[in-house]
Amino acid sequence: MMHRRKFMADSGMGFSGLAAGGMLAADGVVRGEVPSGQHHFVPRAKSVIWVFLSGGYSHMETFDPKPALNKYAGKSYADTPYPNPVDSPLHRKRFRSVPAEEINVRDVYPKIFPMQIGFRQRGGCGVAITDWWPHLADCVDDISFVRNMWTTDNDHAAENQIHTGRHRLDEIQPSIGAWAHYGLGSVNENLPRFVVLGGPTRTDTRASIDACYLGPQHAGVPLKLDPQNPLIFGSRQSGHPAKQQTDEFQFVNELNRLTSEEFPNDEKLQARIKSYELAFRMQSAVPEAIDLSAETSQTSDLYGINEAHSKVAGQRLLAARRMVERGVRFVQVFPSAYGTWDSHQKLKENHAKMCVSVDKPIAGLLKDLKQRGLMEDVAVVFCTEFGRTPGLEERSGGATGRDHHPNGFTVWLAGAGIKRGYVHGATDELGYHALGDGHYVTDLHATVLHLLGLDNTKLEVPGRKRLDIDRGKVISDILT
User: 309-340 pLDDT, tens per residue?
Assistant: First the structure.
């Protein structure tokens, strides 16, 4: 005879599919977890929208213009009045190549490549950004730009590193969204705490939304913007009437209560039960949350949804706004496909195309949050995995692009708890190194968690020792 506990754990009366693969968030407290909903201090933000552009946009052709590149175009670093950045101790300190250093030529190209687009000072704050962002230019007075970010991976495993804080040669760590999920309770009991839109971009970038040793219940929940089938592996099977499923769920729930009485201290069982309950509730709540047809035509136009080149990014960012409106804590958005910003060749053509695909949607998000009074509740992060080289990439006869560049790049933040119309940090005159101490990627993590009311240094799991670099330090200069 099968024990009731085993029956529930193994079969779940058909509901195991709804929680398959850890895709559903459990509201239960697990060992070592900060009790659900307990902030370490008063939060400044209720939710975060984390926007990630895969491939590595050029900081110099976006948010950190460098006129010296035009002045010394075609010359080598040694021919400028500035110190040769390749000889800087910062290069060896921060750079970590997987190939042997003697055969690695990436990010040390000596021939200076000019900027591929003009730039102007924008807004009342006078922050310079390039001409590829005409819509976002209207929002610079609401943004803090962090121009001295750096990371260590010079290949696209940096997509995982920007989210986990670890180089691919090191032990993997939970993603930033998973830490936020782990530390905070749910605002909306019918939706997951950590939602992912448009990603992960490939199977090998799953780590960017994963929870690792925190447990699958804290991983991101990918949603499709299809009200008929938004939950991957989480929809009711065709030919399975809603009434029948409800009756089955009620029966399973009764068995769960009986089992809970028999095993009241079994935390895994309690988490499983709650994940089933959430899965059932999500079948109704998620389709409503991502149903963009409920929005006005003016809102659709604001996000660029009515234009073919910006439709996808606009839909995902509008869905992100609908999610945070409904209490989702962390929404991770991939507006574009894997590696699309990766401009080894034809940078001018590629970046012009990619900027126009995102410019109106991201500006629309900021304007929409502002007009709805949500800028005081929601923090927006806009980032990529690394920058691009100041030097021309000459591999295979290249003459029109830039290679990967982890030594210095720009991200920006806006919204709750963030200074407005502000620039923090800098790269050198050629855009090569993040000056001063700069900010490793986990400084960005620490800042976001701080905005949510979490002390990154207190997020610990028994038996797991985190390194100082895992925690990072809050970029306090950009906070109000």
Answer: 999 999 999 999 999 999 999 999 999 999 99
How far is residue 381's CA from residue 401's CA, in Å, rounded to a whole number?
A: 26
Evaluate whether residue 60 is within a structural domain: yes
Q: Is 251 helix (H, G, I), strand (E, B) or coil?
A: helix
For 464-479, the pLDDT digits (tens) are 989 989 999 999 999 9
Residue 326 structural domain: 46-225+290-478
Span 53-62, mean pLDDT?
98
Specify the residue for token string 């910003």.
Answer: 341
CATH of the domain at 204: 3.40.720
Q: Which residues are CB-contacts of 245 (< 8 A; sequence separation ≥ 6)?
A: 236, 280
pLDDT at 222: 94
Contact 413, 478 (CB under 8 A): yes
Distance CA 27, CA 276 (A): 11
pLDDT of residue 266: 72
Count of domains observed in the chain: 1
Residue with tokens 């670093």: 77
Residues 6+ apart with CB under 8 A from 153: 96, 98, 161, 167, 168, 385, 386, 406
Question: Phi and psi at residue 119, in whole multiples of 5°?
Answer: -150, 160
Residue carrying the six token digits 């976002």: 136
Q: What gap in Å lies between CA 311 and CA 303, rounded to an integer?
A: 8
- Closest-CA residue to 176 (of 479, 464, 454): 454
Whether 12 is covered by a domain: the verdict is: no
Element (H, E) at 423: strand 422-424
Quick check: helix, strand or coil at residue 36? coil
Which pLDDT tens digit goes with each residue over 152-193?
998 999 999 999 999 998 999 999 999 999 999 778 888 999
Mean predicted lDDT score pLDDT of the chain: 87
Any domain includes 55? yes
pLDDT of residue 101: 61
Locate 370 and state its tokens: 């502002």
Number of other CB atoms surrounding residue 44 within 10 Å: 18
Residue 30, in any domain of the structure: no
Distances (CA, A) of 329 to 154, 183, 412, 449: 31, 11, 19, 11
